[in-house]
Design brief:
- The structure is a single chain.
- Helices cover about 30% and strands about 25% of the residues.
- By secondary structure, the protein is an alpha/beta fold.
- The chain has 2 domains: about 60 residues, no CATH class; about 160 residues, Glycoside hydrolase/deacetylase (TIM Barrel, Alpha-Beta Barrel), CATH 3.20.20.370.
- The protein has a 4-stranded antiparallel beta sheet, with no helix packed on it.
- Bound molecules: zinc ion (ZN).
């Protein structure tokens, strides 16, 4: 009996240590899965004809990254319709990232999203720091990157962060954070969290080998665009009424790409502020 007790205590400590435990409780209440079925029709979770999402992120890009390797990697992803998000170390081993103008040029040419990966990427950079210290470090790093890029997202080096990290990021106006979690749920803590898990929905690599299996029919946007979409989709409220053969669908918000699938062959009116135009193919409507 005692043996099991120790096991459970260790398990709980482990879950807290990985910072995944509190996310579990949140994810029970703020589940990412969206109730889509309205009886007469359903509303898709992902835009256009996609049925899942696959986000490619690359960590540890820095001043010292090989620009030629980077370019062929980006070229490969472009052919596969994948838009990666690069987590960049702002100030690595004494060099500012944006002083490498060759890499900056390549990233601009491919219109790549740059997100912030700590400040100098020293071991456990943020884990035991106070809120004020973290604000300072994050700001210094962001200033370097903002010389050439707009920064929306953040990931801590080695995923070593604490509760103050998220709070600091929110107060600094970041749009999202992407840490590790053992649970595969997108959720909101202080900020939208797009956690990296082992199931590869959020794929993370450190190497620039173009050797990534891209799943079929998965949407692969930049993280900032995904966060925008996910927030929209999570908060969307859908109402409807049926009058004879006419179906009226009322949306609380609008984004291009929302897909509606009809169960019966209605004449459909979609209303957000005014009646919207859409493309229809059989029973599928895409805004
Ligand atoms: Zn790293």
């Amino acid at each position: 009996m005692k043996k099991y007790l120790i096991f459970y205590i260790l398990l709980i400590l482990f879950l807290f240590y990985t910072n995944g435990f509190y996310t579990y409780f949140e994810s029970v209440f703020y589940r990412e899965e969206i109730i889509e079925d309205f009886g007469e029709f359903s509303v898709s979770q992902y835009p256009y004809n996609y049925d899942s999402v696959f986000l490619v992120t690359v960590d540890d890009i820095s001043y010292y990254t090989d620009p030629y390797k980077l370019q062929s990697f980006l070229e490969y992803l472009k052919e596969k319709n994948v838009r990666p998000t690069l987590f960049v170390i702002p100030y690595h081993a004494g060099e500012k990232f944006t002083d490498n103008t060759h890499i900056v040029e390549i990233l601009k040419e491919y219109d790549v999203e740059v997100a912030q990966h700590g400040y100098t990427h020293t071991e456990k950079e943020f884990k035991s720091r106070s809120y004020e210290e973290q604000i300072e470090m994050i700001k210094k790093g962001r200033e370097i990157l903002e010389k050439d890029f707009t920064i929306y997202g953040f990931r801590s080096p080695g995923f070593y962060h604490n509760f103050e990290t998220s709070r600091a990021l929110k107060d600094l106006g970041f749009s999202y954070e992407s840490e590790m979690s053992i649970f595969d749920n997108f959720y909101v803590h202080y900020l939208p969290q797009i956690p990296h898990t082992r199931n590869r929905r959020v794929f993370m690599t450190h190497s620039l080998d173009p050797n990534i299996d891209v799943p079929k029919n998965a949407w692969s946007p930049q993280m900032k665009d995904f966060v925008d979409w996910w927030t929209f989709r999570k908060e969307l409220i859908v109402n409807y009424k049926v009058e004879g053969n006419e179906l009226y669908i009322f949306l609380s918000d609008y984004k291009e790409g929302l897909r509606i699938t009809l169960k019966k062959d209605y004449r459909v009116h979609i209303i957000y502020e005014k009646e919207l135009e859409y493309e229809r193919e059989g029973n599928t409507i895409i805004l």
